[in-house]
Amino acid sequence: MKTADNIRWLGPLLLFFCLLPVTAMGQFVIYIDPTHKAGEKDYISTTKKLITEINKSATATAALYTTASEEMKKLERLKREQYNALTTAYAFYTDELRIKRFNETLGTVKRNLQMGFSVIEANPQASFFFRDRLIELIAEVNDAERVFKQATVIEGEDNQMSNADRNALLFKAEEMIAEIAKEGQNIVNVGKMITLDPERMEELAKKKYHKQ
């Protein structure tokens, strides 16, 4: 009888111990679930804000790319128009606007070099390093002008260079002027700086410009 009673109690006891981990797990889930739910709204809100900001940034970036793309298309169109003009005799090379622009640049560079020469001449230290090079640059301006005129002055039907040769001369003259303007400005800037920091700037000038 005792044995039967023991067996009868043993069943529920085993069932209790088997269900105990499940009950504990259920309580554990119930314990963390409210925390998760409470934070979920903030998480979703923050995520939405982040997505909104990303979309705004993407829209702005797309607008910039669109603008840049339009500018590139415009440049390509101008290049094609310029190239197509090469097929028309003298149309590209005698273009009044291009000649006018080159002559204006030429005049500006000449004036700047002359003014720079005056600045350098007034400073014995700067003159020692830069005077000769400025004289050379002024002469190079005249060379660029001659090159440009070779491509734009039409002397006669029997003495015409090819369109390709004319185009090469035009670009050469324009590049010459650009380089002269850049170097001339650098020389004048360094010449002015010599009066502010003589030792350091003289060393720079000696390395870059002075002919031993």
Provide tags for this entry.
212 residues
Number of domains: 2
Percent range of helical residues: over 70%
Alpha-carbon distance between the termini? 125 Å
Based on secondary structure, the structural category is: mainly alpha
Q: Mean pLDDT, as a whole number? A: 66
The largest pleated sheet is described as: none
Instruction: Flag low-confidence runs.
Output: 19-35, 86-93
Order of helices and strands: HHHHH
Instruction: Give the DSSP E fraction (strand runs of 2 or more residues).
Output: under 5%
Number of helices: 5
Count of DSSP strands? 0
- How large is the radius of gyration? 41 Å
Overall geometry: flat
